[in-house]
Write a structure and sequence with these properties.
Alpha-Beta Plaits; 4-stranded antiparallel sheet; 4 strands
């Protein structure tokens, strides 16, 4: 199973969209194995977004991400990174497809509600910035055979 990080940004928290966003992930079949509400420090925000350092929007992004509480999730599931990014939609809300988080709740690019890891390497790095091993709780879920298509019957025998 793949893991990824998602951050429900300050604009979504202020608009009381936390439950609606989390619900999208759970309904899709992703498991929440890490969860916390916090205010990100400037230092931590700069580490998380270091790939954008030097770009014209970097300082504004850091100011935005440290402006209020966020909810940080570690999600687990089959193709979790791709699934999460598809659920999020295009970066700019006005370009995001209806049915995606940004397509349904965002209209601009700057306040786009949610961050998600874009690769396995990014996910591992970002998860380690916000969570230690004791903060992530994985457990076997009985519904996975109904969600991920890995089982051909109720015995749990894998097809792959």
């Amino acid at each position: 199973m793949q893991r990824t990080l998602a951050i429900i940004k300050p604009d979504a928290v202020q608009r009381r969209l936390i439950g609606k966003i989390i619900n999208r992930f759970e309904e899709k079949g992703l498991e929440i194995i890490g969860l916390k509400k916090t205010v990100i420090s400037e230092d931590l925000a700069k580490k998380n977004y270091s790939v954008h350092e030097g770009k014209d929007f970097f300082e504004k992004l850091i100011k935005f991400m440290t402006s209020g509480p966020v909810v940080i999730l570690v999600l687990r599931g089959k193709n979790a990174i791709e699934v999460t990014r598809r659920l999020m939609g295009s970066t700019s809300g006005h370009e995001a497809d209806p049915g995606t988080i940004r397509g349904d709740y965002a209209i601009c690019g700057r306040f786009n509600l949610i961050h998600g890891s874009d690769s396995v390497e990014s996910a591992e790095r970002e998860i380690s910035l916000f969570f230690d091993d004791t903060s992530i709780v994985e457990s076997e879920k009985s519904d996975l055979k109904w969600i991920d298509g890995m089982s051909d019957d109720l015995t749990g025998e894998n097809l792959v």
